[in-house]
Amino acid sequence: MGRRIVATYSIVGCDLDARHWGVAVQSKFLAVGSVVPWAEPEAGAVATQAYANPRYGPDGLALLRDGKSAQEVVDALTSADGGRDDRQIGVVDARGGSASFTGSACFDWAGGSTGPCCAAQGNILVSGDTVAALAETFHSSTGTLAERLLAALAAGQAAGGDRRGQQSAALLVVEKDGGYGKLSDTLVDLRVDDHASPIEELRRLYGIHDLLFGRTPRSSWIPLDDALRAEVRDRLARLGYERLDEWAGVENLEERVDGEEAIDPVVLEQLRTADG
C-alpha cells in the first residue's frame, strides 16, 4: 500500500508578547491534527507535512528546547532524512525566528514563506496564492495568536487552498501554565477530523472554547454591588442553584468564576440568557 500524502497548508506562528506558540492546518486528509501540528511553550512550534515524517515533530521540539534556531532545526532534520525530497516542514523558534523547507519532489503547487514569528507552507495547492494569503493575513491581523492563525487559515482557503479539496483542520496553541486550571501548557487544542467545511467548523469550535475557557481582563469584570448581587442570586434561585460557582460548574464556566466581589461579564451574560 502506498503512503498517504498529507496534502496540506499550514501556518506556524508565535506571539512573543503573550508567550504563545502554535500551528493551524487544513488538509484533504483524515485527522490532519494527529500528524502535522507540534508545539511546546518557550521552545517553538513545528508543522510536518507532504509525505510527512511524524518524527520531525518531537525531534524538532527537542532541538528547539536545546536552543537551536528554526533554520538549524530544519537543516538538522532534513539533512538526516533520506526521504527529505518528499517532505515539507515549517518551524518557529523561541525567539520568533522562522524557517520553511519544501522538498524537490513535493507535488505542485508546493512552497513556503517565512517572516518574523511566522512560517507558512503548503503542497498540492491550487497556487502559491494560498501561502501568500496565509503569511499576509497572519502579519496584518490582530487579536490572540489563536485568532490570527484561524484568520490566516481562512484566508488561505479563500485564496484557493488544497486543490484536492477540504476534509480536516486543526488548531494548537501552547503557553506555559496557560491551559486548564493553569496546570497545563495546552491553551487550545481543537481538531475537526472529517467535515465538508472543516475551517468553518474549527472556527465554531474555537468560539465555544473561547466562551468557556477564554480570559476577560480582571479590570473589565463588573463589581457585584447590592443590586447586581441580588439579581444574580434571584436568577440562580430560579435555575435551582444557591451559588454562582455551582451553576458555573454545570455550564463548564468555572474557569471564569473567581471570588464573590466581581463577575466576569461573559458569565453574567450567560446567566441572564439561561434564565431567559
Question: What does this protein look like?
Answer:
It is built from eight helices and twelve strands. By secondary structure, the protein is an alpha+beta fold. The protein has two domains: 206 residues, Aminohydrolase, N-terminal nucleophile (Ntn) domain (Glutamine Phosphoribosylpyrophosphate, subunit 1, domain 1, 4-Layer Sandwich); 57 residues, no CATH class. The strands form three sheets. It has a six-stranded antiparallel β-sheet with strand order 7-8-1-2-9-10, with helices on one face. Strands 3-4-5-6 form a four-stranded antiparallel β-sheet, covered by helices on one side. Strand 5 and strand 6 form a beta hairpin. Helix 4 packs antiparallel against helix 5 and helix 6 crosses helix 8. The N and C termini lie far apart (57 Å).
SSE order and pairing:
Elements: E1 8-15, E2 20-27, E3 37-40, E4 44-50, H1 56-65, H2 70-79, E5 87-93, E6 98-102, E7 111-115, E8 118-122, H3 129-140, H4 145-158, E9 168-174, E10 186-192, H5 198-213, E11 222-223, H6 226-239, H7 244-250, E12 262-263, H8 265-274
Antiparallel strand pairs: 1-2, 1-8, 2-9, 3-4, 4-5, 5-6, 7-8, 9-10, 11-12
Helix pairs in contact: 1-2, 3-4, 4-5, 6-8
